[in-house]
Amino acid sequence: MKFALAITINLPRERVLEIFDDHDNVTKWQPNLVSRELLEGKLGYPGCRTRMVFNTLGQRIEMLETVISRDLPDEFRAEYSSNGVLNTARNIFIAQTPETTRWISENVFTFSGLKGVALKRVPEALYKSQTRSVMMEFKRYAEGLK
Question: Which of 80, 97, 99, 105 is 20 to 30 A off residue 40, Cα-Cα?
Fold first, then answer.
């Protein structure tokens, strides 16, 4: 499954990237994130692996984040794996104007194993909704900092 979503953030690209790259404040725009543990590498850089634990609808979900590439200010690419689902996410940041940034999130989901096959049956709209929700939370948080 592939899809792309985009939002406009009312901040300059440099400020958006500064906030996006601030690992100490991730829980402020990912409210379901309970903990984050660095397993190897440098946070936010290629090869970095992080265990992330989420509490979603009362359910504990562990996810492994692996940073694939960091070509900021243009893009950040990472893989997120959990329970037979692998999401490769490419985040692109475009300066629309000096005061606005377009964030495009391109996502490719692949499924494997019994859990993955079961989760493949979840409607695509749910995956899009979850991704859009995270993006909107980031936008709200970032614009609130100005």
Answer: 105
